[in-house]
Amino acid sequence: MLPDLKILGAGLLWLGLLFGAAVLGDRRPKIFARHWALIYSMSLAVYCTSWTFYGTVTQASRSGWWLPPTFVGTILIYLFGFGLLMRLVAIARAHNSSSLADLVAIRLGRSPAIAALVTAIAVIGIVPYIALQLKSVAMSYGMLARRQELMAPAWQDSALWVALAMALFAMLFGARRASATAHNRGLVLAMAFESLFKLAAMLALGLLVWFGITVPADAASPVPPPGGSAGFTTLIMLGAFAVFTLPHQFHAGVVECRDPEHVRTARWLFPLYMLLIALPILPLARAGDALLAPLGVPSDLYVLALPLANGHGTLALVAFLGGLSAATSMVVVATLALSLMIGNHWIAPLRVRAGWGRAAVGDLRGEVLLQRRLIILAVVLLAWAYSRVLVASDALADIGAVSFSALSAIAPGVLVAVYRPQLGARAVGAGLLAGSLVWLYALMLPVVADGSLAWVDQGPFGIGWLAPDHLLGFDDWSRLARAVILSLAANVAVIALVATSRFAHAAKSGHRGLVDLGDLRALASRFLADEQVQALFGTDEVDSPASETLVAAIEHELAAVIGASSARLLLTVARRERSVELEAVAAIVGETSQDLRFNQRVLEAALENMSQGISVVDRDLGLVAWNQPYARLFGYPPELLRVGVPVADLLRWNLTHRLSVSHSVDEEVHKRIRHMRAGTPYVAERSFATEDGERVVEIRGNPMPGGGFVATFTDVTEFRRNEAELMQVAETLELRVEERTAELDMARREAEKANRAKSRFLAAVSHDLAQPLNAAHLFTHALAQRLGHAEYREAVDNINGALTSAEDLLSGLLDISRLDGGQTRARMEAFPLRDWLGGLAAEFSVLADERGLQLDAVPCSAWVRSDPQLLRRIVQNFLANSVRHTRSGRILLGCRRLRAHVSIEVWDTGPGIALADQELIFE
Questions:
Q1: Quick one: angle between helices 596-607 and 580-591, nearest 10?
Q2: Which three-class secondary structure state does DSSP give residue 503?
Q3: pLDDT at site 628
Q4: How many Cβ atoms from other residues are within 10 Å of residue 660's Cβ?
Q5: Is the model's pTM score more than 0.70?
């Protein structure tokens, strides 16, 4: 028994370390950039959940399998299904897929129904698996603390607090950005870190069993269960499917893959990891069966009970932390993946239809993040409730197998989406439904009924081979194997049947509509970061229509935030919003096409108050409605505008009197008529002469649902005129900039000329002044030899020192002139820093002592290649500055090695230099 405080403290400390690893990965990603392939490969071990610590031991105890069959299936996929993994990563990166449901929906025509159905199956399958993690933590804590596993009040349930901590971790490091495909380095690093720890914990348990515990030689080996071959094969298949059907495994392996080449590293490293962590499983099971089973210890808890029974409490605590770590990583990534799937494929379509696509809506990124965080909390609480209410007597191995089997129903849909997407969404959806229903009937119904329903045991209508446990005569198989095989068979059969029928593909709408750049930009700004929006749109005109290429790019980026199917739905709503004015007119015309007189009165009341010109033609291409702005804009004769006049007559009049054409008038009329009959939307600008001068008109046309065409005509003359004036101003501005640049260039050349003259002057002055100073030196030297009195000698020495200082100033002045004139050249040579630093230290030690300072020089054995004189002057300046401005304390001179370089540094206890003034030192 271990104290509660010790257990809780160790658990909190370990969760804190995981939190710290995630923070480090987010804030210092460059540290790990070179090793990211290894980190990615290790993060895949989120697959090894607490079931690996507890459930696999129970499985080995029952069957005698030394390697869990689900591990075998996963290893086989990485060794022989490498092409599938690479293809999944490539598809996800190409389409910005944020989840498993998103990828399947994208490949099947961005079907919202498929995405919602895959999400539903994922929720049904993964919530029990999350509950397994919570139950394992509660069971292991109870074992360490020697507490009975009773139904405690909710607030006393350790699983609840663990669940809330896991939810908080997922919210902080999973739901941080609106874009779900932006790689979460902190989360991945934390998962890799915990993978190493749980491997170390499991191997430590193995060492205890191999070398620290004696198992009786007559201990019986586990007896394989009945139908073991079918069960083993089924579990291998479930393990293979789990690589791409478990939401958390898909997120870790596909969504978080930054480079497809990293999968090549994972191809060998991840299987090796699984083999290593599986090595102690069977020895633990055999030792537990021999030593603990007679005492009534559940096999799920052998990994904790064995070290406790042998006096290794610390090792038991490490095993507990390994299980806690495995549970935490799975819950965090799984809830993150489910929050994306539920938010993008259940909630987002409803929100788009309810108002997300409207122009008045503001920035929605915060709402998207809040939605994900609430979903994470809801999923965790749902799993916790499941762990309390429904799984009180289930072994952990059974819960894990049930979850794997439920999610296997998605596997055929994923494979069809990757390799045969042309089979269609309807076929895959029907297969998913059929497979899931068979799984519910064959596996879950007997569990829920638990003998209370006679027809479940005897079969519907007394037909025995229809009973779930005898379905189709597979009596010798285990319930799990029978449910999985029959579910997959029904799934594949229904997909093939529907794909070959006439119901395989839904009819596609040919009308897409137009959307302005301004509307599209406003839509993108609600979900994307400002820098993303700027990069996508640049400086394009907001009033022009968006190209299909740009619309596709926006849809690609939105898919990372709200899913591909919801992104397509959002843009569809935006297209409808853009043309709402035209569609309102079209609806009026369509509803009243049987009575032209009534049409005339309604349309006159609706259209005359609009500033745009509008014309509406029916399915026979006859004019049925117009307004006065339209008539004034083109100057039609009154007799030409009447209900029923063929639109061809109006086009011919325009081409003859207003517009200039390169081909014959009849050819142009026929071309425009063909566009109207085809129902092709268009946007165009036309220039033509009127009595008031040349006018520019923007023409937008949209087909009506019931046939016919509606067009708007907007006078954009003033806008284009202002645009031309701005372009002219821009051109003249360029000329002025060129002139100013030439003036600045001339001023620069004159300044350089003056600088060269100054340098020559300084050189000449320095040379001329140096001669009398040299002579003065000679005189003072001769005078010093003649004077014998000490007081006179001291005066002569002072004069000599002053002359030396003057020479140094002139020498510096001469160096400045040489530098300006480009005459000074560094004389590079190799020399040791030890003597060089010693000379500097000796020179300045006297000055430092006079000011009451301590100057220390750290010896350095390095050799450098530089100009010793110029380098000496630089360091002299630094030392002189330190001596001059340091009031008390010490000065330190030394070197710091930087790989192939050396940094010479002067440290002091002076006031320092303000950050804003540091650049001035080198000017």
A1: 160
A2: coil
A3: 81
A4: 9
A5: no
